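Query structure, 425 tokens:
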């Protein structure tokens, strides 16, 4: 049939994972270049016939100078191992990847200039299309060259499509295409780049996103890595994700209602977090099976507690102080989301005709989803045009309700502390 093929989703050479600076990790070992090194080693180890990139190999055109040496070395290693290197251009590297392909002779750019192209491999015919420019609002299946590429398929070979685009999005500047239309083309599989969350590749007929091979920020949780596609004797394809990402991101909710309200609360909270992380690893195979340099954790604390000062102290610690060794790997709590509530009956307090009662009533409405308007100027919409936010994907706005809730809880804490001080006096 032919040796397996390794398909690689969005790599984004030139970017590095954020949020873990200051945690004591070597950031360069967490990013796309490191993930590419691991991918090359895995390709050679598994004896693949080709490595195929599904676009956005390079993050931006300016990054092509940094990407040149990294990609050149990777291609050279693969070629020495008799592995072919193929890719399509995405919306991020529609300029950079063709230029790099022109400089790296062994790199085959498939579907250059937005014209479909067929490429024969051992037992497989690749059908691919590359972004011709930054934006492409037309369905790529309407681009030239598709019929000749389909006609070039060989009898007895698998036919696999490689494409960078927006799946099942009608109006998009990034090559919108419908799954039903891909199914009608009649290929054995479609492997797509663009969306960083992988999906629908474990089906008998894989059609879906490969996902990014390394999580580039805290939003890219879950398993990461390229996909090893094996040609089965029965004429089917089997896709298996290789967990090669050097960094993982995950989320953890922890109820801290039982924390002691004393000077040892912060230490007790650290113990609870460490225990919860160990349990989290045991429950998620991709966290225990991967070979990670570090794991980033978004920690969501919940419950009614008298130890809210310990929660606030935790949030103020440095990343290095929020680092927990689990199974020999540093787990860094990069975000502490305070979802705790004061250990008071908010429903009863809301009936009190006082500022405390008004705050409690607002909190109840917020959590019930019945708070229609923000009563204080805490909305984040005012930041929409702020010059410090040039890229909404890289610098997302905070959730308005989370900001409002944190402010209300903090204010209620202060009012309750004032009441306690007066009663104590």
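Result returned for the query:
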């Amino acid at each position: 049939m032919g040796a397996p093929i390794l398909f690689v989703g969005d790599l984004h050479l030139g970017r590095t994972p954020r949020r873990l600076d200051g945690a004591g990790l070597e950031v360069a070992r967490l990013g796309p270049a490191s993930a590419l090194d691991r991918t090359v080693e895995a390709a050679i180890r598994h004896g693949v016939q080709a490595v195929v990139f599904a676009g956005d190999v390079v993050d931006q055109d300016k990054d092509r100078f940094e990407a040149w040496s990294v990609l050149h070395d990777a291609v050279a290693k693969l070629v020495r191992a008799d592995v072919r290197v193929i890719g399509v251009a995405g919306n991020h590297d529609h300029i950079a990847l063709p230029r790099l392909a022109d400089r790296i002779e062994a790199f085959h750019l498939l579907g250059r200039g937005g014209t479909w192209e067929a490429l024969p491999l051992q037992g497989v015919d690749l059908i691919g299309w590359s972004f011709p420019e930054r934006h492409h609002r037309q369905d790529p299946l309407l681009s030239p060259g598709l019929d000749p590429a389909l006609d070039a398929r060989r009898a007895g070979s698998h036919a696999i499509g490689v494409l960078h685009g927006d799946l099942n999005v009608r109006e998009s500047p990034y090559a919108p295409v419908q799954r039903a239309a891909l199914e009608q083309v009649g290929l054995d599989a479609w492997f797509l780049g663009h969306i960083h969350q992988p999906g629908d590749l474990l089906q008998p007929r894989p059609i879906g996103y490969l996902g990014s091979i390394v999580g580039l920020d805290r939003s890219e949780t879950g398993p990461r890595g390229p996909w090893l596609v094996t040609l089965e004797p029965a004429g089917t394809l089997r896709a298996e994700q290789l967990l090669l990402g050097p960094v993982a991101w995950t989320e953890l909710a922890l109820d801290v209602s039982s924390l002691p309200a004393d000077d040892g609360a912060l230490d007790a909270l650290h113990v609870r977090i460490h225990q919860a992380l160990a349990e989290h690893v045991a429950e998620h195979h991709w966290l225990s099976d991967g070979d990670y340099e570090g794991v980033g954790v978004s920690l969501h604390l919940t419950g009614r507690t008298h130890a809210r000062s310990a929660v606030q102290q935790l949030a103020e610690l440095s990343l290095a102080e929020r680092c927990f060794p689990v199974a020999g790997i540093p787990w860094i709590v990069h975000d502490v989301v305070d979802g705790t509530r004061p250990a008071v009956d908010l429903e009863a307090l809301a009936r009190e005709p006082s500022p405390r009662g008004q705050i409690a009533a607002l909190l109840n409405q917020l959590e019930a989803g019945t708070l229609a308007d923000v009563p204080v100027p805490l909305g984040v919409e005012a930041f929409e045009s702020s010059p410090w936010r040039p890229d909404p994907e890289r610098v997302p706005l905070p959730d308005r309700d989370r900001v409002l809730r944190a402010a209300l809880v903090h204010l209620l804490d202060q009012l309750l502390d004032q009441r306690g001080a007066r009663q104590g006096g």
